[in-house]
Write a sequence for this structure.
């Protein structure tokens, strides 16, 4: 069973592009925000300051548009994790309507050397509580 973390955002005028819907770049920003918030939530009792995460790849599927004033619920959970990589899966909803599906592959680095580090048991316990 996946542990789902949720974050709500409301579409503001700054999020809207010339086509009067949420700009694609905004979704990437929201992906980064929800990933950061989820990691902070997961590590609230067990900080892991010796590691940092960097994006290796984004995959985004835009299904429906969001417009000014929409309240968006972003759901995220951890996918496959092995080596130094970990997937984060995300879905963006307006009410019960799926708008966007996304996957980001993150790489874990040593915070001092900025070199990839194999994901060990201490991190796995945090990612899969």
């Amino acid at each position: 069973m996946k542990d789902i973390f949720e974050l709500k955002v409301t579409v503001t005028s700054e999020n809207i592009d010339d086509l009067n819907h949420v700009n694609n770049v905004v979704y990437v920003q929201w992906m980064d925000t929800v990933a950061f918030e989820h990691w902070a939530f997961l590590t609230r009792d067990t900080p892991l300051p010796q590691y940092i995460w960097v994006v290796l790849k984004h995959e985004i599927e835009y299904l429906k548009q969001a417009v000014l004033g929409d309240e968006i619920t972003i759901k995220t959970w951890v996918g496959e994790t092995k080596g130094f990589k970990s997937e984060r899966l995300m879905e963006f909803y307006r009410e019960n309507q799926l708008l966007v599906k996304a996957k980001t592959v993150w790489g874990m680095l040593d915070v001092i050397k900025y070199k990839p580090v194999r994901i060990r048991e201490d991190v796995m316990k945090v990612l899969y509580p």
User: Anything to note?
Assistant: The radius of gyration is 16 Å. The chain has a mean pLDDT of 96. The longest strand covers residues 97-110. Residues 50 and 111 are 5 Å apart (CA to CA).
